[in-house]
Amino acid sequence: xxxxxxxxxxxxxxxxxxxxxxxxxxxxxxxxxxxxxxxxxxxxxxxxxxxxxxxxxxxxxxxxxxxxxxxxxxxxxxxxxxxxxxxxxxxxxxxxxxxxxxxxxxxxxxxxxxxxxxxxxxxxxxxxxxxxxxxxxxxxxxxxxxxxxxxxxxx
Length: 155
Fold this sequence. Notes:
By secondary structure, the protein is of the alpha+beta class. It is built from 5 helices and 7 strands; from the N terminus they run E-H-H-E-E-H-E-H-E-E-E-H. Helices cover 28% and strands 19% of the residues. It is globular and about 45 Å long. Mean pLDDT is 82; it is low at 143-155.
């Protein structure tokens, strides 16, 4: 994952040239843009999905947006092997409401939780078995609708 401004600076191209190149790559399903200015390179094995799996880039996306978050609800249960069904969307609990993101077959649903910052301080992070390692996820002891918070990036 990378930021569009970083790519423009590194390649030394104009804004129009970067925009056209990214449009061509997105049309060929080689590049996905979950948020304006934030891009994810899509390798050939994930082109059918239309994007990388969400655990692979969610931490970078939330850092780009400057939001505290944790992976929760049914998605957290599935990551810990406690869900009876595969979730149809990747659910992220955050401190601000964000719109639904749909990229190919991937759906990112953001759920707002009041007092998220207070919850994040009270409990240490829990690493899951996602590949690559997911940096923030709900604890397996937590019910599907609630959770004990985790601190971002610390294991």
